[in-house]
Amino acid sequence: MLHPNLLTPPSVIPPPVALQLSQKAPPILSSSPTSSLPWPLSLLFSTESPETWTIHENLFLASLRTGDDVSARKVLDRMTTRFGEHSERIIALRGIYEEALAKNDKELEQVFQGYEKILREDPTNFSIRKRRVAVLKSLGRIPDAITALTVLLENSPIDAEAWAELSELYARQNAWGQAIYCLEEVLLIMPNAWTAHAQLATLYYLSASAQSSNQLQPLTLSLRHFCRSVELNEYYLRGFYGLKVVSRKLLPLLSESSTSSKRNNSEDDDTPPPKLESVKKLEELATSKLAEIIRQYNSRTQGWTGFSEAEVTAARELLDADGKIER
Amino acid sequence: MAFLGGTLNTVGAVFLTHAVYSTSEHTATFPHAPLPLDITLELLFSILILSAGIVLSSPTLKPIQWARWAGRIQREGPHGEGKWTREGEEILSEGDPFGFLGLDGGIAGKGEGRRGFWDVRGKRKEYTEWVKEGGSR
User: Fold this and answer.
1) How many domains, chain A?
2) Which of A88, A106, A122, A234 has the most CB atoms at less than 10 Å from its CB?
3) In this predicted model, what pLDDT tens digit does every residue of A107-151 receive, in sequence order?
4) pLDDT for A80-112, tens place per residue?
5) Helix and strand numbers, DSSP H then E, in chain A
6) Chain B residues touching residue A96 (CB < 8 angstroms)
7) 102-131 in A: which are within 8 Å (CB) of B?
């Protein structure tokens, strides 16, 4: 298992890992990265590197998460002296610190008012605008958060991170159409993001489960996007998993519609349903790829250890369930 | 491979230096005589050896197909390459370049979410609950 790393923190940080990360605070805080010598000498004897400040920022977040507010404050002070208190990023980090220390919703409300004040002075501070959305989300005011985000996106429509966040907020409200639209915007900005394709496919799949009639069209689109995600990444476990789930759901629908007469043919011209044979082939492909990934991961082959344990287990369960049905 | 490349580079550099030095001495002594054949041959030989050494000691190539490249990132996951920063953090290999979109955790998943919208209070609460439960691993 990889040691918890502050430079590139993992994408999922469970509490034990967070604890290990924040325990790195004392050694890092014990030595100062900036030199105390006067100006020309300080350039020569400085030990800081670009990584230094990434590590400090991640350490700040890790200490706040584990309630080590003293270390967090020290790291924040250090960053403030280095970059000045008017740096956009420092302002946002200070905001996070205040949010973390707010004991109840009322104090959080005050932090929110503080953000409003900062934005009145400098409406172009996008980090603070994002924090504002995060506070609204934390207060449970999801519709307000959505409104704030749409305003942000009107001003900065190429912010992929914000589009992805808005998509998730909509998806939490079960507004599948809007969520799909937002992810399509992400894809316009980053057409090669395999995670975005898989997420879009997931949204189509969920929207198909939400509606009872005409499931064929969203499932077809879901299949297409899963196909694209595995086309962009040849060992994308989530993509193959989704491909298998969707094609298993599509197969009965397709055989049904082929036995009954071809109905709304003109209506579905935009997204013609796939052929039965190709869906079958895709399912076989997904099964074989998943089986390969599971086999290699479980035998701990060199270069195959990057998958997440939970995902591999889920894939195995899917394949096992499949095997039982066939038997 | 790295050892062989290093040796070839050293040998090539020695020959190249020798050839250059010989040329300089030769032209200083006989300004109008043509260069002898052995110096020319040594120069060409040293350049061949150096080129081979540089090619052999270069790092392995990255896949130029998007799917292969992405697949390798997915398969291998982030791993150390034997370099550490001064703070003692290992510098890891290239990770998922779209990780910042926070889309891999699914909807309302357990992941870290997007950096700009980091939910500090939610994460703090998760941690305190874990501590209350006894902090089991």
Assistant:
1) 1
2) A234
3) 999 999 999 999 999 889 999 999 999 999 988 899 999 999 999
4) 998 998 999 999 999 999 999 988 889 999 999
5) 16, 0
6) 118, 120
7) 102, 108, 126-127, 130-131
Length of chain A: 327
> Smallest CA–CA separation between B3 and chain A, in Å?
23
Is B75's CB within 8 Å of A303's CB? Answer: yes
Give B26-43 pLDDT, tens digit per residue: 999 998 888 899 999 999
Q: Which residues of B touch A233 (CB under 8 A)?
A: 67, 70-71, 73-74
Q: Is residue A83 part of a domain?
A: no
From residue B38, give the alpha-carbon distance in Å to each of B20, B29, B50: 12, 17, 18
In this structure, how many other beta carbons lie within 10 angstroms of the beta carbon of residue A43?
9
pLDDT confidence tier of residue A302, bands split at 50, 70 and 90 = confident
Query: Considering the domain boundaries, does residue A94 fall inside one?
Result: yes
With H, G, I as helix, E, B as strand and everything else as coil, classify residue B80: strand
3-state secondary structure A87-153: CHHHHHHHHHHHHHHCCCHHHHHHHHHHHHHHHHHCCCCHHHHHHHHHHHHHCCCHHHHHHHHHHHH
B127 close contact with A: CB closer than 8 A: yes
CB of B67 within 8 Å of any CB in chain A?
yes
The DSSP code for A153 is H
Going from N- to C-terminal start, the domains of chain B cover 2-57, 62-96, 98-137
A198/B71 Cβ within 8 A: no
Question: Which residues on A lie below 8 Å from B115 (Cβ)?
Answer: 161
Radius of gyration of chain A (CA): 25
Contact check, Cβ <8 Å, A64/B124 = yes
**Location of structure tokens 């020319």:** B40
Among the listed residues B110, B105, B109, the one whose alpha carbon sits nearest the alpha carbon of residue B127: B110
Q: For residue A325, is it within any domain?
A: no
- CB nearest to A234's CB, from B67, B98, B110: B67
- Of the pLDDT bands very low, low, confident and very high (cuts 50, 70, 90), residue A259 is low
Amino acid at A35: S
Instruction: Return the residue of A nearest to B80 by Cα.
Output: A2
What ipTM, to 2 d.p.? 0.83
**Chain B contact set for A49 (CB, 8 A):** 85-86
DSSP string, A212-234: SS--HHHHHHHHHHHHHHHHH-T
Task: Classify residue A97: in a domain, yes or no.
Answer: yes
CA nearest A168 in B: which residue? B107
Q: CB-based contact (8 Å) between B64 and chain A?
A: no
B60 vs A: CB within 8 A: no
